[in-house]
Write a structure and sequence with these properties.
Residues 105-167, 224-371 form a coiled coil. Keywords: Coiled coil. This protein has 573 residues and is mainly alpha-helical. It is 97% helix and 0% strand. The protein has a domain at 1-73. It has helices spanning 2-85, 91-184, 186-191, 193-310, 316-480, 486-572. The chain is elongated.
């Protein structure tokens, strides 16, 4: 039995060591999980910061590229203005073209004004909507505060109602006692009737106050219902404002499309201006060529006149006729030259007017370009805001995904911890079953030993009865030989007493030896049972302590995971 107990103790110590190793593994796993969580959080923060810096650098680069494009457009407009100042063209075509350009300019100005108005209206609507949202949030907060105050008032009134009900119950009990007391001692109650009437009035007042509190409770419940209805209305209003925000966003996208169309129209008008400038330059060159040709013809005619004057008198008449004809041609050419000069002067005046108109149109176009630049800046700011919102949304989605993954890992780890806990509990249950089986065996062995001891004790009792009978018979025989002589009697008595004493002593020694032989295994069994019970109690207490520690660790891990999930959800919110 001692060896079995030692073996059982060794097995228990091995199981305890294994359980301690499992507990150390669980603690190390928890530390590793915490380190992984901290590393992941640091990595994610670093990634978010790097993404923010990259987004800022990208936005700066985009702003620089936009500034470069705007400067290029301004240079192009300046070059176009310089090119327009050098050109001249025919009046009708230019007037028609200028009229078309003026109409298109008016359209563009109207479109720009409409777009500016739309953008301003959108900004105003967005500001008003944001103000409405903030006002609604403030109203919701106020209503929540009112709800909390009403709930606190309800609780206080309920407490007062409970106190009143208790006081009413006490008063009813007092009333019952007073009624009993009235039946027992009517004369004393007659003397104290005034006191009873005062108590009845107090009861009536308390019942009236109780009714008032019930009415207040009903009113507060109605107010709560009204506040709930108003909160529902606010929720519907918030949803409608969200839809209005979506419509405003769509209108903003439409205005952006219109702005792009206006940009295309501006590019077309610039191309048409270039074409008109090319046409004016070609017409001017053509007029200069015609003038040069007319001057060459005049020079040739003058040379012919000089040749004809040098000729003889014979051809004077013909030469005079030719001179008259040539004078007519010269007059015609001079008239044509004067007409061309008048046309050139008129064209120059028209060109000056057109240049002034073009300058005005350029100024207007420059103002329109400035407006476009302002609108582009606003658009870029809005795009930046949208990009920031998109980046924030992507970051939120990534954070949510990472948090979900972390939650999944935490849940898996919790599941593993629960599995380890269940396995440990199963091991503990198996160990308990083994110890219970061993206890049953030991109890069965002890019961068998007790049965054997009882049998041996019954056998010894029978032997004692037999020996007592033998002693009685010997005493009878000794009494029979009492008629002998005194000496023989003494000798016989001495011998018989000595033999009886010896036999009794031998029997007592045998009985003592048998009892000791029987008591030694019983004592050993009792000691073994006591040691076994103490060992089992120690094992059960240690197993319970280890199980409690494991459960506490698992609960702490679960609570830590839940707190981390709550903090992540709060950060996301």
């Amino acid at each position: 039995a001692v060896r079995e107990l030692r073996i059982q103790n060794k097995a228990y110590y091995t199981e305890a060591r294994r359980l301690r190793a499992l507990a150390s593994k669980i603690s190390s796993n928890e530390r590793v999980i915490e380190q992984d969580m901290q590393k992941r959080i640091e990595q994610r923060t670093d990634l978010i910061q790097t993404q923010m810096f990259e987004d800022r650098s990208m936005l700066i680069e985009q702003s620089k590229s936009l500034e470069n494009t705007i400067s290029d457009l301004r240079r192009r407009t300046v070059s176009l203005a310089v090119a327009v100042e050098d050109g001249a063209s025919e009046k009708a075509a230019l007037l028609s073209r200028i009229d078309a350009l003026v109409i298109e300019r008016d359209k563009l100005i109207n479109d720009h004004s409409n777009t500016e108005k739309a953008v301003s209206e959108l900004k105003q609507s967005l500001d008003t909507k944001q103000d409405n949202i903030s006002h609604i949030k403030a109203l919701t907060q106020e209503q929540q505060q009112k709800m909390e105050e009403l709930t606190s008032e309800l609780l206080s009134e309920r407490k007062a109602n409970k106190a009143l009900t208790e006081s009413i119950a006490q008063l009813t009990t007092q009333n019952t006692t007073l009624s009993v007391y009235n039946h027992s001692e009517s004369e004393q109650l007659r003397a104290t009737s005034a006191d009873r009437e005062a108590a009845a009035e107090a009861l009536r007042k308390e019942s009236a106050s109780h009714q008032d509190t019930a009415e207040k409770l009903y009113r507060t419940e109605l107010q709560l219902q009204a506040h709930q209805a108003s909160s529902d209305l606010l929720q519907t209003r918030i949803e409608s404002l969200q839809t209005e925000l979506l419509t405003a966003h769509n209108e903003y996208s439409e205005t952006m499309i219109k702005l792009e169309e206006c940009k295309g129209q501006l590019e077309q008008t610039q191309k048409e201006l270039k074409e008109s400038q090319d046409c004016t330059e070609w017409n001017r060159q053509k007029a200069e060529q015609n003038l040069s040709k007319a001057q060459l013809d005049i020079d040739e005619l003058r040379q012919a006149l000089q040749v004809s004057s040098q000729m003889g008198d014979e051809g004077k008449t013909a030469l005079a006729q030719e001179n008259v004809a040539l004078k007519g041609q010269i007059q015609i050419l001079s008239d044509a030259q004067d007409a061309l000069q008048a046309k050139l002067s008129s064209l120059q005046s028209d060109v000056e007017v057109l240049e002034s108109n073009l300058k005005a149109s350029q100024e207007q176009a420059h103002g329109a370009l400035q407006n476009v630049a302002v609108i582009q800046n606003e658009v870029t700011t809005l795009k930046e805001q949208i990009q920031l919102q998109d980046t924030l949304l992507t970051n939120e989605t990534t954070i949510r995904q990472n948090s979900e993954n972390d939650l999944k890992t935490c849940r898996m780890q919790l599941h593993d911890a629960v599995e380890d806990k269940n396995r440990i509990s199963t091991d503990i249950s198996e160990v308990n079953k083994v110890w219970e089986s061993r206890l049953q065996r030991v109890t069965e062995d002890s019961s068998k030993q007790e049965a054997l001891l009882e049998k041996q004790i019954s056998v010894l009792n029978n032997q004692l009865l037999i020996r007592s009978r033998e002693t009685d018979e010997l005493e009878q025989k000794v009494n029979q030989f009492s008629g002998e002589t005194h000496h023989v009697k003494r000798a016989a008595e001495g011998d018989s007493m000595a033999s009886g004493i010896r036999s009794n002593a031998v029997q007592e020694v045998k009985l003592d030896a048998a009892l000791l032989a029987l008591e030694e295994p019983t004592a050993n069994a009792v000691q073994a049972d006591a040691a076994r019970l103490t060992a089992e109690d120690d094992a059960e207490s240690k197993a319970a302590r280890l199980a409690a520690k494991d459960e506490a660790r698992a609960d702490s891990v679960r609570l830590a995971a839940e707190e981390e999930a709550k903090t992540i959800a709060a950060r996301l919110a």
